[in-house]
Amino acid sequence: MKYVDDFRDGTVARALGAAIRAGARPDREYRLMEFCGGHTHAISRYGIADLLPPQVRLVHGPGCPVCVLPVGRIDQAIRLALEHGVILCTYGDTLRVPASGRLSLLRAKGRGADVRMVYSPLDALQVARANPAREVVFLAIGFETTTPPTAVAVKQARAEGLGNFSLLCNHVLTPAAMHAILAAPGGVRLDGFVGPAHVSTVIGSAPYEPFARDHGKPVVIAGFEPLDVMRAIQMLIRQIDDGRAEVENEFTRAVTAEGNRKAQALVAEVFELRDAFEWRGLGTVPASALRLRPAFAGFDAEARFAVPAVPVPDHRACECAAILRGEKRPQECRIFGTACTPDNPVGSCMVSSEGACAAHYTYGRFRVEAAPTETTRT
Amino acid sequence: MRLPHSHPLDLEHGRIDLSHGAGGRAMAQLIEDLFARELGNEFLAQGDDGARLPACTGPLVMATDAHVVSPLFFPGGDIGCLSVHGTINDVAVMGAQPLYLAASFVLEEGLPLAGLARIVASMAAAARAAGVPVVTGDTKVVERGKADGVFITTTGVGVRLAGIDVSGANARPGDAVLVSGPLGDHGMAIMSVRENLAFDAPIVSDTAALHGLIADLLAAAPDVRVLRDPTRGGLAATLNEIAHQSGVGIVLDEAAIPVRPAVAAACELLGLDPLDIASEGRLIAICPAAGAERALAALRAHPLGTEAVRIGEVIADERRFVQMKTRFGGRRMVDWLAGDALPRIC
Ligand code: SF4
Predict the structure, then answer these.
(1) Where is the PurM-like N-terminal domain positioned along the sequence (chain B) (predicted)?
(2) DSSP 8-class letter at A360
(3) Which of A113, A165, A231, B95 is most deeply buried (CB count within 10 A of its CB)?
(4) Does the predicted model carry a pTM greater than 0.90?
C-alpha cells in the first residue's frame, strides 16, 4: 500500500490544490472532461472538487462501460438467458442496469434466468467447463482495458474445444467516443480532456494525437489516484493558458506512446471493427466497437442465437444521454435522487459507482442540498 | 437415560439425512450425541421443549439473528462461533448483560457430520468462553439443494444494566464517534476465501463477543449514548442508521479511520470501500465529547479494544447525512451501499 499512499498524500494534495487555485486565471473558465468513469469515481470519492477554484469545471464523460450500454443490448442478454436458457455470465454492475419491461439481469435472475456474476472472462470459461450440457454466454462489456482478457478467454475456449462457450461482445473504443462527443452538433464546450488511465496502458498515448492536432484540445493522460487527477488538471490548465494543445502523459509509470503491443496484437487477432455500434447517449457511432473475427464466429453468441439487438428508447424522464455527452449534470435530471437512486436506478448512470449520477448521489449530493449546518452545532 | 441406538453416530464419515430431522430415533441421537454433548448445561439437561430459567431483575433485552455464511469455515472462525458472537453482541450493544442463547439449526441433507460437529464444538467453545449458555434449541433438516449446508438462527436474552441508556436514537450534536479497532476484517476474510484471493498474510475474521468490552466501557463511561457493532453494511450503514434514528449528521475524519493494510489492499483490488465491509468483533460508540478520552482509555485497556480511536463527531444536520473529510482535504458523503458490495469492472 505504500505505493498507493504516495498518490493519496493529503499534504501534497492541498499544496497542489493551492497551486492550481493560484495558477488558474480568474477571468476565464476551464471546462475539462474526465472521459473515464474511474476518474469520475476518484474525483467524487476524494472530494477533489473542494480543492479546485470555481472557474475549473469538471465535465463527466461517457467513459463508464456500464453506462454507455444501450437498453437493447441488455434486453438481448436477458432474452438469451430467459428464452434460450443459457447460463449468462457477466460483471457485477451490469446485473443492475435497467432494461425493458422493468427488468434487469438481476430481476431476470429472480424470474428463473441463470445469471451469474463473474470477475473475469476466465471465470465464465470455468462455468462452461463445469456445465458441459449447458450453453454459457459471457456478456462482455468494457473499453480497451477489458478487451484483452476477453480475447484470451476466446482463444482459450478454442484451444480447449469448448463448444458450449460464446461471447455477447460489447467491447467499445475510447477514441471513437471522444470523436463523437466533439462532433456532436451543438455539443458541449470543452477545453481539454483528462485522458483514461487503464485504457491508455493498452492503446498508448498516440491515439489521442488527433484531438490535440485536429481539434485543438489538449489531452493529459492521468492515473486513477487522486493526486494523478489533480496533476493532470494542473497540466491541462497550463497548456490552455499557454495556448498549447498537446498530448501529455501524467501517468508515465504505466503508459507509453505505443502502449502494450502484445495486448494490441492479441485483440487484433480475435476482434475486428464493427461498422457502427449504438451507444447510450451518443447514438450510433461509426467504427466504435469490436466484434469477433469470422475465424472465431463459433464463439459469437450473436451468430449462434437468434437474438438481434433491437434499439429501445431510454426512459422518458431520463437524462443519461445528455449526461454521457457532458451536456448536463446529474442534479439537473428531474428524477435525480427521487425516482432514480442507486437502489432503484432508472437510468444506467445511477448504477455503477463510476456512473456520473451514482458518483454524485453517493459522494457529493450534500453539496446541492441545504447548506451544511456545522455552524449550528450546539 | 440413554436411548438404545443400534449404531453410534458416525462423526467421521456420516452425513445428515432426512431422518435426522424427522423426530424419530435418528434425530434424538443427533441431539443427544452431538448438540447436547457439546453444548451441555443444566438448562439443556432439563430435556423439555423449552428452558426453565431463574427469575432475573431488570428490564430484559432480546435479539435474534439468522446466520447464513458461505463458506461455513473461514480464516479466524466459522458459522458456529459467529452465530454465538453475533447474537451476544446484538444484546450487549443494547447496554445489556447477555444471559442465555437459543439456537435453531436448518441442516441440508448431505451435510457431513464431521463439519457439523466442528461447527457445534466451535459454538460451544464460544458460548463457554463468553459465559452465555445455549439453553434451548431446535433442528430441522431440508432436502439437498434447499439450504447452503447449515443455517443457524440464534436468539439471545439479557438484562439491561442499571443506569445505562444506549440507543441509536441518542446521538447529539457535538458527541464523539469512537471505534474499537480496524474495520472490515471479517468481510474481507470471507471474501478473500470466496474469491480465491491469495494474500501474503491471510486476512483473519475479527469475530468476537463484545459484552466484556462493553461492560468495561460502560463502567468507565456510563454516559455513552450509542453502541453498535458494524456488521453487514459496515461502518457506513451503521452510522447512516444512527444518523437517521437520532436525526443528526456525522462527520468522519478519513485519516483517523483504522483499516488494516491487507484489508485496504483487498478492497482496492476489488473496487470496494472498506467502510462498507462487515466487522464481527468491532464496536462503534458515541459519547459526549467531554467523556471521549475516558471512554477511549477504557476501550484500550481491554484486549478487544487496544486499537480504539476517535474517528469523527456528530453534527446538527436535518438532512441526516454522514460525511467524511477525506485524507485529501476534500469532503464527500458516506452513503449506504446500494445493493450488494460488488467489485468494479474497470
Ligand atoms: S438521475 Fe437517473 S435517470 Fe436521471 S440521468 Fe441520472 S441515471 Fe439517468
Answers:
(1) 48-159
(2) I
(3) A165
(4) no
